[in-house]
Amino acid sequence: MKGYLTYLILWNLSQTRMNGAQITREFEKRRGTKPSPGTIYPALKELKTKGLITVDNKKTYSLTIDGENELKSACKLFCKIFYDAKEMSEFCK
Amino acid sequence: MKGYLTYLILWNLSQTRMNGAQITREFEKRRGTKPSPGTIYPALKELKTKGLITVDNKKTYSLTIDGENELKSACKLFCKIFYDAKEMSEFCK
DNA sequence: TGATGAATATTGGGTAACCGATAAATATAA
DNA sequence: TTATATTTATCGGTTACCCAATATTCATCA
Known about the structure:
The structure is a homodimer of 93-residue chains. By secondary structure, chain A is mainly alpha-helical.
């Protein structure tokens, strides 16, 4: 299960502003394992380059307007692909 | 968003037995675009090699016991990673 | 102030995941 | 049967995705 990292960074930042370490902990909760710094910071850098997130002087990241729009599209696609996620959660009980 | 294909093949086969063309159509519905045959058949082959699915003489694929167990674990992980999928679906409305 | 740990960042890959092109097998029907 | 479409399969290649290792900056407090 790869490929969801960037998407989840945007999603997390849409809920609350965070720094890199907080994002890392968030992923640890979700996946069980900590993502490597070599995973998280290049990802943040790329998102910044694309203008989807911004950083303040305290290294706190937050979504831009473009980032929110991007997340919205990604979110729509996610929900379309996994439209039956509810049944999945029943299945694995 | 990559990495969910194998997982969704297992999930689809847990719902109903299917051949390669049907699986392809299922993905077209979910993603909007058809996966290439170069995507779907090697994936099926690998799952068969791993003993997670079987094929009958009509090329109809179905889950094995191992496949069902594997799916269950993958499903649990999926639900853990995307535990707030419901809020996501609200977000992108 | 200096030291120690935490957070941030970069670099250089490795490989899983997927695709396009092509070919072969199978089904459908004319 | 012949022809046409559909399905199945393989192969080579590309890239997205992520990691480990290392370096640097920052924060905290003795």
